[in-house]
Amino acid sequence: RSGVPVVPRRLLPLSIKTRLGLDCVVVERWVEHLLEARPAAITLHGRTLQQMYRGAADWSAIAEAAKLARGTGTLMLGNGDLNTLVDAIRRAAESKVQGVLVGRGVLVGTGVRVGVDVAERVGVAVLTGAAAVRVAATASNTAVGLPSPVTNWVT
User: Fold this and answer.
1) Residue 31's CB: how many other CB atoms inside 10 A?
2) Which long-range contacts (CB under 8 A, 24 or more apart) does 115-121 make?
């Protein structure tokens, strides 16, 4: 051959980032279809493609998706309107997703970035820039003004 080492083939986990639908919310039918592929993770943005970034993200639809994915082995991550660490923790707790992806919220100001510094001091690991938030929350959360500890978040 060319002298380039051959890398053995291996299975790679599949993850999917998608929206609630094209021009209307079809989360139940769409997520059930995606779950048939048994992806490692699904990240659901809380708007339709037609909405782009207009209007508020629909976290109740994301919560419905999380409910559908529960027990399947697929991580359900939520995305949309996460401008602060408190937003991320609150939305994850309310929707019962296993994590969140922070996208444009990192650019909105220093809310998430400052939150990351605080979070790291109290045992919350956060990766920003379209990254998952993993909470290994402790009782220290309340001491720094964060909501009650949230557990079971996975990156």
Assistant:
1) 25
2) 115/84, 115/85, 115/86, 115/88, 116/85, 118/85, 118/144, 118/146, 119/85, 119/146
Number of other residues whose CB lies within 10 A of the CB of residue 145 = 8
pLDDT of 148 above 60: no
Q: Which residues, at least 6 apart from 38, have a Cβ–Cβ distance to it below 8 Å?
A: 14, 72, 73, 74
Confidence of residue 106 (pLDDT cuts 50, 70, 90): low
What six digits make up the tokens of 44? 């659901």
